[in-house]
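Subject: for your reference before the review

Hello V.,

The reviewers asked for a structural picture of the protein, and I figured it would be easier to keep everything in one thread rather than splitting it across files. Below is the amino acid sequence we used in the manuscript, unchanged from the supplementary table.
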Amino acid sequence: MPDWIQHTVWWQVFPLGFVGAEPEAAPAAPVVQRLPHLHGWLDYAVELGASGLALGPIFAASTHGYDTVDPFRIDPRLGDDADFDALIEAAHARGLRILLDGVFNHVGRRHPAFQEVLHRGPQAERANWFKLSWPRGTAPGSEPDYACFEGHRQLVTLNHDAPQVADYVAAIMDHWLNRGADGWRLDAAYAVPRRFWAQVLSQVRSAHPDAYIVGEVIHGDYAGIVRDTGMDAVTQYELWKAIWSGLNDRNLFELAHALERHNGYLDAFVPLTFVGNHDVTRIASRLTDERLLPHALAILFTCGGTPSIYAGDEQAFRGVKEERVGGDDAIRPPFPPTPAELAPYGWPIYRLHQSLIALRRRHPWLHRARTRQVHLANAQLVLAMTEAPQTLFVALNLADEAVSLPVPEARRIEVGEGQLVSEAGGVRVSLGPQGWAILTA
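And here is what came back from the structure prediction:
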């Protein structure tokens, strides 16, 4: 893991949606310079407290960006190489690292290698790039059956046993790292054999030892995947689910259990943590009680991990993901040209993010902090976030009544609201209904 990631907070953007690009790319459409639209938001990201810009797909594709047709070319709906270079320069000038989204489990049907298969049949030079099953009596122009990603026929799975595919993926990663990117998110990393990643990433790291590599993994053996592949981290979906589910159900036992498992992961690697991204319902819509949004953020910004904020969540954007064609549109909306045109209702949540990120900057050891339960009930939780010798306490109250909770050795409240009281039995914090506080030991 590169040293710089210890101080990184990502602001994640889905560019095709952010800039209002067409949902489908015409094969011969002219280049439209939309990437410069992001320049007007870089200072906003820095003022938020972010130190990295995590980009969704930006390479030539047919629709949503995950059906790649040319990973060596910027999507013409976004711009060209010069626009990419300008974005890298502008971001780096502000201290923002750039994370790219690599789709290496599959390609789109319009990818030249697959089109070659459709036109030339089994004799196509790159036929072994895919997992194909040909009908008897195959002739040029016949269409084979083929492995696809999770039943989506437009997403053709690559054959990760083919050495040419490994060389192809390594070449893509090298190309954009050479142009100034700082790391890669590996889309659908869970669907790709670990041995493939191990081969590719060792090759990439030989030229780019300071690159950050994080894999999208929903569930499974997180630590084992990191160990076997050479990735720096994977996405922490277990904790994401436990945060909103535990808050909604007033079941903080679920959250506490997930944090115990999270401690185990931290023994092996530092996960990418989040409460929202481009694939899930926005946290402000997911929570059934909007008063508990600060509680979710308090956990995100004090537990061990590399936090990521999905653009718009810091303004309490709403959006529900639906399982249908176009079901991601609500969570991938266009943004106005500048932050000044945002609606006023979201700025208090933006300022809350600023306060919590500033707290994390004051306590950089939180990147590897473990959690210890001090008090646990269905609707109350006190956690000690520790990386010896430092400790912060996080106190949460989900109930409609005020409570007094133990916070041993706490000296003052850093963020949140409450009142510290010293008693014979130790220090306690009084929290109002749906109250929360982060305290210094």
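For the response letter, the relevant points are probably these. The first helix runs from residue 15 to 18. The longest strand covers residues 380-387.

Happy to draft the paragraph if you're swamped.

O.
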